Design the sequence.
């Protein structure tokens, strides 16, 4: 029996929402609204809570009845119960401890997921890791994020920080990153540190890759050094988790062959091959909508399984 479900992905600038039929995954509608971060209603609640409510109402009008369930994805660490974001310091004021089921007046439970966790669940349901049970995902952009599913279970850990792959070390002698990790993969490839890594020659990965593809020696050295670090991180994490596939998503993946060709070479040169089981790299398929689909999927899993 098919059910209509809704997924919300609450970002810093935009709220993405999808209405989807479950379990087939056919999209009924997609909508967005601005987040209106740092704006508050008269009752003290953040404006983005109203935005989420409006998106749900719009979708339920489209489908003609109440959704079977709603799931929400947001930055930060979710509570162990999965009913709110417990920890999101420094931005999106009003998000921490906001209980979404109560705020939205939903009868059914409303699961809340970290945005990277939700993105991986979306890729497992409808994207590059469809139907798989053991997956690692890296999100490569301004920083580096990630998530892990092992044996079909999303790894969350004690505080919900499991899968925060950007803050794993590839150089114990390196400088501490913002989470105090020495020589982290986030600092090795994240766009935020590119000006420092290139002595202010490059401020965007796109510009770096353009120079690399044109054969610029300095750009080549910087880019390939970053990819060697990423390969080391992927190989190390694969030895720990043993995934069927490693999914890469985020702005840096738009480099295409300039990313995947040398990265695959570096991975193959250093990976452990028990029974010739090599690491498979795939580009994510759902783009910026992965979190919304993953939030919907997680809600459906809680309700129907």
Sequence:
């Amino acid at each position: 029996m098919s059910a209509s479900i809704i997924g919300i992905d609450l970002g810093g600038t935009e709220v993405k929402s999808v209405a989807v039929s479950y379990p087939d995954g056919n999209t009924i509608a997609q909508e967005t609204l601005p987040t209106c971060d740092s704006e508050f209603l008269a009752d003290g609640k953040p404006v983005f809570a109203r935005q989420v409510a409006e998106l749900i109402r719009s979708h339920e009008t489209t489908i003609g009845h109440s959704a079977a369930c709603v799931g929400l994805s947001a930055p930060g660490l979710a509570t162990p119960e999965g009913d709110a974001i417990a920890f999101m310091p420094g931005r999106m004021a009003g998000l921490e401890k906001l209980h979404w089921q109560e705020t939205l007046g939903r009868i059914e439970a409303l699961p809340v997921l970290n945005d990277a966790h939700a993105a991986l669940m979306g890729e497992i349901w409808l994207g590059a890791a469809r139907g798989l049970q053991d997956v690692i995902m890296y999100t490569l952009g301004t920083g580096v994020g990630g998530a892990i599913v092992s044996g079909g279970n999303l790894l969350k850990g004690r505080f919900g920080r499991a899968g925060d792959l950007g803050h794993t070390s590839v150089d114990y002698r390196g400088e501490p990153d913002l989470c105090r990790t020495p020589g982290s993969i986030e600092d090795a490839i994240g766009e935020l540190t590119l000006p420092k890594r290139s002595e202010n020659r490059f401020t965007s990965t796109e510009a770096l890759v353009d120079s690399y593809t044109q054969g610029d020696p300095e750009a080549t050295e910087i880019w390939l050094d970053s990819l060697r670090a990423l390969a080391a991180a992927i190989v190390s994490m694969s030895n720990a988790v043993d995934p069927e596939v490693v999914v890469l998503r985020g702005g840096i993946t738009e480099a295409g062959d300039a990313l995947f060709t040398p990265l695959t070479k570096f991975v193959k040169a250093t990976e452990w091959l028990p029974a010739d089981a090599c690491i498979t790299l795939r580009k994510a398929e759902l783009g910026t909508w992965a979190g919304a689909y993953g939030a919907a999927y997680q809600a459906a899993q809680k309700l129907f399984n």
